[in-house]
# Entry
Amino acid sequence: MCSLGVFPAPVTAAQTLFERNNELLSALHPGEHSQACDLPSPQFTRDTLKGHSRPESSSRSVFLDQRDTLWMRSAGAWRDAGLYGLLDEITNSAEEVPRFLAVGSACVLALLRWASSFHGSLFPHLTLSSDEMVAEFSQMLDWSDSALRSFAWHPHTDKFAVALLDDSIKIYKSNSSPTPTLKHRCQRSVCALQWKPLCGSALAVACQSCLLIWHVDPASLSTRPSSGCAQVLSHPGHSPITSIAWSPTGSLLVSASPVDTSMMVWDVAAESAVPLQRVGGGGVTYLSWSPDGSRLLAATPSALFRVWETRMWTCERWPCLKGSCQSACWSPDGGCLLLSMQGERVIYALTFSDLTGGPKAASVVADLSETTFPGPDGDLTVGGEVCSLSWDPRGERLAVLLKGDSQADNHPSVIAVFKTRSSPVFELLPCGFVMGEAGAEPRFMQFHPHFQHGALLTVCWSDGRISHVPFYFSSAGLLGGDSPQQALASNTTNPSSNKLYTEQIS
Amino acid sequence: MCLCETKFLSIYFQVVIWRAVASIAWSVLLLPVTTAVFVLLSRFSLFHPIQWISDCTSLLTASSTIFSLVVLCGIMSLFVFPLVVPSIPCSRMALLGTVLHPRQCVHSLVYCTMGMLVMWCASVTIGGRYSTLGTPCRQSESGEVVTCLNEYHLFLLLAGAFMGYSHSFLGVVQNMYYVSFQPIQQYKYPRFKGCLPMVVKCSVIQALYSARNFAALYFFFGYVPKTWISSTLNLQIDSSLQPLDSLTGLLDFSLLYHLSISGAFLYLTWYLTVLLFRIYVTEAYSFPVQSTFTEDAEQCLPKVLAEKNTLFLALQDLALLSQHSLSRRLEVFNLSQPGGHPHNWNAISGECLCLLSELTQRLVAHQDAVASNGRVKSQSASSDTRSASSSSSGTEDIAETPRLSVPVLTAPFTPDVDSPFSSPAIRRLVGQQDPHSPWSGTVQSPHIMRRGPKLWSASTGEKCPVRLLGEKGSSRFSVIPLHGLETSVNSCSCHTLNCSAQVKSFLAKRVLIMYLFNKLPEASSQALFADSQAHIWALQGLSHLVAASFSEDQFGVVQTTLPNILSCLVVLLEAVDRHFKLPHASSKPVRTLCSMGDSTYKTLRFALRAALKTAIYKITTTFGEHLNAVNISTEHRKRLQQFLEFKE
# Structure
């Protein structure tokens, strides 16, 4: 098991630029140029982006209060807020309605509230408001406060989409072509973005009230695609949507909402959905499709997650000990699943194989409890709960976003990067910490899906900057067809380094 | 040959008929449950819960209920076969024709009777004032006891007939018997459990609507059946009771409650049968790819793919095996044992390509029809001068004129009279004779290429019929001119055509006729893609097999057909792209929430386009730069290059 204690000490003064020769180099090193990649790294500040000044459905305060008839008000309340609103309205206007009606509606309202509070005590997340829920279950650290709301690389090209605080989405390409801005009436509180695999144009956006599928023509020069380019997919009771996952073949899209116990499997082109309902857990917060498409992880707000197999769509339940599953990632071959739980400072691994029929228990592969490194300007503490996990497509680097402590000033959120090795046994080896500029904390990270020279980690920082950190290494050959031989060769040629690490770990 | 057919029939029997029987058996087994719920609800009384429960249990074990159950079971076994390909009427007239078709009339009649029977059972079960048709009553003047008509019973019976008819009617209008396949596979029980709330909700809503409509109908016309029944059965009408065809009689809460409850029960039994049948019939069936015994060879995937009855199941199985089953993929790529020919792969890919190119031809023919319409309209001024010159060439087109019936798979009602579906069939024959020429070099516009051999007769399209289409009438009217033009073109026929066109333009000004005959927008487009689920599976199966062959195909059997597959896909993509430029083709239909009718067929064209692009991407991303070594035409290569750069 790997722990943070064996990591090289983080360099706090300057931004980490790249990894070369097994070493993370920062801007302090003389003679090192900026990155070799020509990817755009835009910066967004909170001041330039104007969020919504008013919360939803509160335009009432703008207008003068006018007394309508009871019927009008009741109808309005029914339309705006449903049964609750109607009962509330009747109870509040007790002098205008017959006494028995007012008393009856008050009783029913109390009963409903009691029932929903009971329900809420079973599943505490149901008492949160929609925005709070998104912030709670988003993969973005500190979602509500951040200028960047979500980020997604295109799986096949050098193109990424960024969702911003003002509910717009910008698409950046590697060359200096125009950056389209996507805006839509329904595009509120974007929690997740994902590009459709095996497609050049489709981008799925998880919004507060619905699911949007943008079709952004890559050849178009337009900077403001009309909202006619977006498909709106919605299902009653299925909002806010906090996670979406395309199947690796691009034929299906799964969406999840913490308030809905069923997750929706969409056939996007036909706009039809198949709900897959499992009541336990009280909702679905996070979805992750294994890269080979055979399994799908669905985390719930309770201490329970499920792993669906996608052939006949049956699931196995995995009750956890402590908290709910916060983040997870699959190995590129889909055989290994790494998980992090809320309230625990470890990473679990589940190994799936078709021969044994699945794992029996999760094993702990990394310990991420707080560790203090001495530095030139005081001690620095790193470690804590995991906010998100990301594994590079070659399966050689694992980035872990660790939550810091916002009260303590020397305990920031950091990204710890591990080297991973799958043979002979699955192992995590320390690589280093990715640091930002002074004062900037990482909020979100994702690996570039097809970087040529190793792995490329894209990090969204708290100051609104997006930067790219390349890791240059020669692959041990997990991707190629001749992987076993190469892996074997690399193992045999570097026995010393392997031995060194194992000694350190044990 | 005879043996083969019986074999095919046996597969068909095994798979489909057996599933139908199983689903009906299950719905019969579910009947006691729904009946129990119905009894509980119908006898519901808030203030005497214990009496309510004991009443219900005694009723459920009573002989009359068991007898009703037996009757209901008999009703369930009546069944109408669902369609895999929806029938899409293109104009309101066609819809009217479907509704008034004798077969449909018989169907409605049967459903009316079934509805009445179920309602009779329901009224017996509810008991009380509903139980019998005749009740003893005391005549007001003489005071003697006579048998009177029980209007409540009659009301429920008529409601049953009404609901039966509306079920049968909506079944046609909403395409309820169309069975769509789900995008994901699920076991039957979870799927049933997942769909059950939806079905209950639908049946309740439908019952409420029907109850409302029936109450209104009875209010206006209720006296007709009432007097008829009372006169034929010689029953008196009890004048002391409130008649039900009055406002006060209808505003009886208990009556409306029982009407909606028994209506919901009626719809629920039917909907459950439909649901169970859908679940059973869309279940995947695994055909063997190749068999070691020759007598089982007819049941193998390549053979089953060629058979129309089992085509959908076979394609579904192909799509599944291409994605999920390594061992079966290897069988597909395998060589035949004596001889070493890739028979499996050749048969499978050949069938898929055949299906796809048939769709391409259908689309091109449709576009031609629409395009020729436009062209004819635009040149309405200069007609007579050219008619002589072109009359000689007109004969050349005779080969294309016989308007054959629709291609194999399309719905029986493929509506569009104006789209000459004739040509695909013929061109398909031609295409089989010469597999290389028709599609190899035709990127820009296949329909020009189609006319390539007889280019000199291209002017045929622009002669006589021109004036005929002066009005903006339905394109239905254009059929005759096109037709006439191709068979015999001379001034005489032109004259008669002009006359008929005048008649039609006269008719076209009548609003009702226009309303009935005007084409519904999108309908022709929907009808073209009505069976596209098959094409989608063929695309998925082909693309996944080709992509898998990159690493799994040991003998290189796929490489030989790769150029064919790629050009077929690209040509289809162009045809689809051009189709989406037609008016109404890219407009999204309104989604209907909560109806048992499946409206998936309305969006099949979008699904097909997405599946096609995904299929091409799947192949291009897998093969990458290796595609440059594949022998395809430059135009197709250009298009594929777009896919390689993710510019589509």
